[in-house]
Amino acid sequence: MLLAVDIGNTNVAVGIFQEETLVEHWKVRSDAEKTCDEYKVILRGLLRASLLDETQIKGAILSSVVPPLTPVFQELCRGMFQIKPLTVGPGLKTGMPILYENPLEVGADRVASAVAALEKYGGPCIVVDFGTATTFDALSAQGEYLGGAIAPGVRISAEALYAKTAKLPRIEIARPERAIGRTTVTSMQSGLYYGYIGLVSSLIQRFLDELGGEAVVVATGGFASLVHREIASIGYYEPDLVLGGLRILYERNRKS
Fold this sequence. Notes:
Blueprint: E1 2-7, E2 11-18, E3 21-29, H1 36-49, E4 59-64, H2 70-81, E5 86-87, H3 108-121, E6 125-130, E7 133-139, E8 145-152, H4 154-164, H5 184-211, E9 216-220, H6 224-227, E10 236-237, H7 241-253
Parallel strand pairs: 1-4, 4-5, 6-9, 9-10
Antiparallel strand pairs: 1-2, 2-3, 6-7, 7-8
């Protein structure tokens, strides 16, 4: 079995693959203050609750956008499974030319999701990841990573409204019945929910124009489950796209 770990700013996504099948996956809170031992306890408990034998995990791959947690999970893999994990970064073979001016600036999670989208849908393709930040990645018909866009995630925006204003409350992010809110809460929900639909729809259209008018559009990330059906240009929703990309990257690099 393969352990795939995507360390994000809000959550750590953990997946267990048997060959190409994702047999189990979980999300735990990202906490740079947690020690390796604390994450070991969490992961061991999750494995046992799912009746999975940790001794059957023979490979591991990590992607991380939280530098302090990268060595924590590398140590975890060595300690729990006696495995040196592959880590997405310089030197890892992606099979995908990255045309960013500085390829090292592209987040490991974005690389993994792009690889998975190209493998499943081909190019041209647009990947929209509704995570802590909302990221957009453009992939060419030739399988090249062209670049993208980064916007504040919807939860960051909601927290900014609460933190930077005197009277606006912290709210649940939800779909309001109408765009014209009649309370402070529903007005904020409208601005966040429908505002993000507008932002995403507009950027996708600009990407499509620059890609020649046609591309497969794939959504992933936590907030995508709430909004992907509202955006006509999104053709596919893949909640585990990054984990799938990590599995592909592992297979492409396992011999080396």
